[in-house]
Amino acid sequence: MTLAVDGTEHTVDVDTRTTLLDALRERLGVTSVKKGCDHGQCGACTVLLDGRRHLTCLSLAVAHDGAEVTTASGLGEDDELHPVQQAFLDHDGYQCGYCTPGQVCSAVGALDELKEGHPSHVTEELEGEAEPTEEELRERMSGNLCRCGAYAGILAAVRQAAGEQEVAS
């Protein structure tokens, strides 16, 4: 099967039972995707799959032959950080850093969903672009857990990336 990971196409042989997470980590050596719970509950394995956030531990690799996978490592361009990555640095949206790649990919996906007008459970108006309120951002990021409890920094980073908050001085 083939996968385009962070802009590089890879051909890999995998067993039909191999998860996308294991194909990325064990077969392709992509370590920015983390294995947390292996049950789809923590979000550490979140990537952008064909532009949408996706839990790789719940997907069989063979189901995504030809897909484009973007990890947190593949977000920036020309040695510049993606705005979400920069916001995580600006607001210390990490402690141990284990969940950070999944948090960053989830934030990018969540902000794209907002721009595209996809409602969440807390969205008041179902038509048009949802506002990036604190409640809205918390709901959209709720599938990503941080064992260190860096949620204040994570939320501040996502708000900054959404354009709602300036960099703290």
TrEMBL record:
Residues 1-75 form the 2Fe-2S ferredoxin-type domain. Signal peptide: none annotated. Pfam families: Fer2, Fer2_2. Pathway: Alkaloid degradation; nicotine degradation. InterPro entries: 2Fe-2S-bd, 2Fe-2S-bd_dom_sf, 2Fe-2S_ferredoxin-like_sf, 2Fe-2S_ferredoxin-type, 2Fe2S_fd_BS, Aldehyde_Oxdr_Iron-Sulfur, Beta-grasp_dom_sf. CDD domains: fer2. Keywords: 2Fe-2S, Iron, Iron-sulfur, Metal-binding, Oxidoreductase. This is 2Fe-2S ferredoxin-type domain-containing protein.
